[in-house]
Amino acid sequence: MADARVIPLHPENGSAARPADRGDSGRGSSVSHSRSSPDSGDESRDESASQDGPGSWDETVADALAFARRRVLGDYEVDEFGFDPELTDHLFLPSLRPFYEKWFRVEAMGLHNIPAESGALVVANHSGTLPWDALMTTVALRDHHSAARQLRMLGADLVFRMPVVGALARKTGQTLACNPDAERLLRGGELVGVWPEGFKGIGKPFRDRYKLQRFGRGGFVSAAIRTGVPIIPCSIVGAEEIYPKLADIKPVARLLGLPYFPVTPLFPHFGPLGTVPLPSKWYIEFGEPIETAPYQEGSENDPMLVFNLSDQVRETIQETLYRLLAQRRNVFLG
Q1: For labeling, which of 11, 28, 119, 136 is most exposed (least CB within 10 Å)?
Q2: Which residue intervals are annotated with compositional bias (Low complexity) in the record (predicted)?
Q3: Single pTM value for the model
């Protein structure tokens, strides 16, 4: 198989490169267009009817064959972090959409708070035993934001040490959760996502659901201040219930080199069936940006400022979680 072309993170036009043909990723923009043009009349109906005909299947097959040919010939691009936009848009995101739309029935709010082009840092609560919350946030931004933003997630080193998973993470836009990588992406105008609770958040017991854990040392705040990008608080409700963690088998976790080995109502005693997430109803809300541009150069070295800003982000997310939970009537019906 031929090697792919590597594209720089900072092309000459000053913005991150985007794939010319986004395939399925155009879902978000097409939805926005149809909503903004309710009076399109017969033309829209005719177009919809034509898409449902045999020709649409021919186009789908042709696109699939063209995609396969480009992969075999190496006629695709990756950036310096290993991100493969075509693979992400044609294979990775389509595999997640059924969960987003049908299983979790995610409702995304506050998408207008995400900038259309410039860099920003999305900071979210982490929960659910497995990182479905990060995946659903990615789909929300790619499919339903007006600019179809691609979220570049920061992951723990454990992710990149795992066979297959580590390579897939790189190809779908993730990189190591460290300040140098985060700052390079932010300066390149990328939308970066971080879950500062880490394993303490995603692996907490079910009795502590929706209670935010400590936000580390505030490294994400330093990165945002140093690059002058806004911080977008993101609150996710619904992920806590997909795998209610009742206990942790620590000896097994140590044996496997994992931070925890969860016991849920269905896992491990139901085997692979226990890995199917429960179909809770999800809400993802992106809060108002917290600007960092006004801070003077070197402010990221002020520990008190970093702590206060980190605490502000944490409190914003926590208050939003409580508000969303108060509005929710049923875990599975919303």
Answers
A1: 11
A2: 27-39
A3: 0.82
CA angle 97, 164, 22 (to 5 degrees): 40
Contact yes or no for 187/194 (Cβ under 8 A): no
264-298 pLDDT per residue, tens: 999 999 999 999 999 999 999 999 999 999 999 99
Spatial contact of 220 and 194, defined as CB atoms under 8 Å apart: yes
The length of the chain is 334
**CA pair distance 318, 323, nearest whole angstrom:** 9
Angle at 159 between CA 153 and CA 160, to 5 degrees: 95
Neighbour-count burial of 204, counting CB atoms closer than 10 A to its CB (0-12 exposed, 13-18 middle, 19+ buried): buried
User: Which one-letter DSSP state was computed for residue 139?
Assistant: H
Q: What is the mean pLDDT of residues 127-155?
A: 97
CA nearest to 235, candidates 308, 176, 315, 175? 315
Whether residue 224 contacts residue 291, with contact meaning beta carbons closer than 8 Å, is answered with no
Domain extents for the chain?
42-75, 88-242+277-327
Q: Higher pLDDT residue, 116 or 216?
A: 116
What is the pLDDT, as a whole number, of residue 205? 96
Rounded to a whole number of angstroms, the CA Rg of the chain reads 21
Residue identified by tokens 């402010």 is: 299
Cα separations in angstroms, 115 against 177, 189, 221: 22, 10, 18
For residues 279 and 204, give the distance between their C-alpha atoms in angstroms, rounded to a whole number: 20
What class does CATH assign to 88-242+277-327? alpha beta
Q: What integer pLDDT is reported at residue 145 of this predicted model?
A: 98
User: Do residues 116 and 146 lie in contact, with contact meaning Cβ atoms separated by under 8 Å?
Assistant: yes
